[in-house]
Amino acid sequence: MTDQFSYVGTELELFGNARNWKAYWTSCLRPFVTGDVLEVGAGIGLTTKALATGKERSWTCLEPDATMAAEIATRTDLPLTPNIIVGTTDTLPPEPQYDAIAYIDVLEHIEDDHGEMARAAKLLRPGGHVVALSPAHQFLFSPFDKAIGHYRRYTCRTFADTAPPELIRRRVAYLDSLGMILSFGNRMVMGQSMPTPKQIAFWDGQVVPKSRWLDKLFAGRLGKSVIGVWQKTG
Q1: Where are the alpha helices (DSSP H) in the chain?
Q2: CA within 20 to 30 Å of 117's CA: 12, 33, 91, 190, which one?
Q3: How far apart are CA 14 and CA 59, in angstroms?
Q4: pLDDT tens string 2-34
Q5: What is the b/e burial string over 86-116, where b = at least 16 CB atoms within 10 angstroms of the residue's CB?
């Protein structure tokens, strides 16, 4: 039951101050997040704070963990007042009602990701977009991934293939090329189940800005995260 769901991860607050990283991925996805927006797996509202501009027609936070959903309702730092629903996409009426659907660090937590994207397509109005961000490369799967409930990491190909035929791929690319090197070092040498705040601060302050430059050089072909944008036909 969705009202009994409890998220196993503890990383949300840890990454909450990663301002450079949030600024980077939001700059890639925000242009497609307009109109009536559904944010799937909204957590405690940190993604809402980062991605929403306040100019959207409406914003719905869908979160299966009732405790986390309740925390969203207490936030006073959001650019808009979201509609908060405790549940998952299979609890929503399967009819087109959104112009954009966002999965930010969410699809890797869902066992049937293909089924999830098929449900998203039914909820999306024609011409609307699904945007997503997830961790990249299964060879980087670490104790950290396991600790926070990841089923998988993605390549650009496997990320693109999660979408049904009615969702046309507009962009799938890797982000954070330099961070990929650090992640590989952690996977092979340190094997940590959770990064420290100091490590997060170093990555966000020193690595991400350099990756933004390098990612242009590599043209999105290398990175530890992957973004996707799909548009519904019809």
Answers
A1: 19-29, 46-51, 66-74, 113-123, 143-147, 156-160, 177-185, 197-202, 208-218
A2: 12
A3: 25
A4: 445 655 445 566 777 899 999 999 999 999 999
A5: bbbbeebeeeebbbbbbbbbbbbbbeebeeb
Count of domains forming the chain: 1
Q: What whole-number distance in Å separates Cα of residue 130 and Cα of residue 140?
A: 25
Q: Angle CA(200)–CA(204)–CA(210) in degrees, nearest 5?
A: 140
The whole-angstrom separation of Cα 37 and Cα 83 is 10
CA distance 74 to 64: 17
pLDDT for 51 beyond 90 = yes
Range of the domain at 47: 2-232
Q: Write the pLDDT tens digit of every residue in 151-180.
A: 999 999 999 999 999 999 999 999 999 999
- Of the two residues 188 and 18, the one the predictor is more confident about is 18
Half-sphere exposure of 10 (CA within 13 A, CB side): 7
Pairing mode, strands 225-232 and 167-175 = antiparallel
Token pair, residue 220, equals 């999105």
- Cα(169)–Cα(88) distance, rounded to whole angstroms? 24
Query: What is the CATH number for 179?
Result: 3.40.50.150
Beta-ladder partners of 101: 38, 130
